[in-house]
Amino acid sequence: MEFTSWLALAAVCFMGAISPGPSLALIIRNTVQGGQGHGVATALGHGLGVGIYALITALGLSVLITQTPLLFDIIRYVGAAFLAWLGIKALLAKPASGAVEEESHGLRGRQGAFEGFMVAFLNPQLAIFFIALFSQFVHADTGWREGSIMMLTAGGIDAVWYVLVALVLSRGPVLTWLKAKSFVIDKVSGLVLLGLALKVVI
User: What's the protein's topology in the membrane (predicted)?
Assistant: First the structure.
């Protein structure tokens, strides 16, 4: 891949990453509830999910997803169910307490990484987005090398952006204010996630 082509690919991936959606809602909620480590783990998991989707698309497998209605519907409904579960979980969450037990950090990190990965990987709109984007860069002889470049570009940009979001939210007065408003953030995030789950199904 030529450098100018890679720059164009990276620019579009960056614009996609910063677009508001369920991913941003999840990063904000997990950072507020679990602190910096929880938010960063969620961001890294999300980046991994995006990267895997990018690799699948680059190798032509996402075409199968979009052209096979049954498989596409399965992914769509599973993704909607997961978004709905996250939304209900946020709506039922209790206000965040000031103390966070050290023993729970590892568990929180794994949970955050899993949630971030699933929100990305179970989003069929990513397949459509990457097909539209990669159609400008993928050729008949595109192999693992080019696919890996696209995977690292899309997943890396996504992960770096959301890690920065988590780091900014977890420092100084920003996090203090967010923790004070955590109950409201939970409710808003829950409604957003439920709305997006409904939108996926419809």
Answer: Multi-pass membrane protein
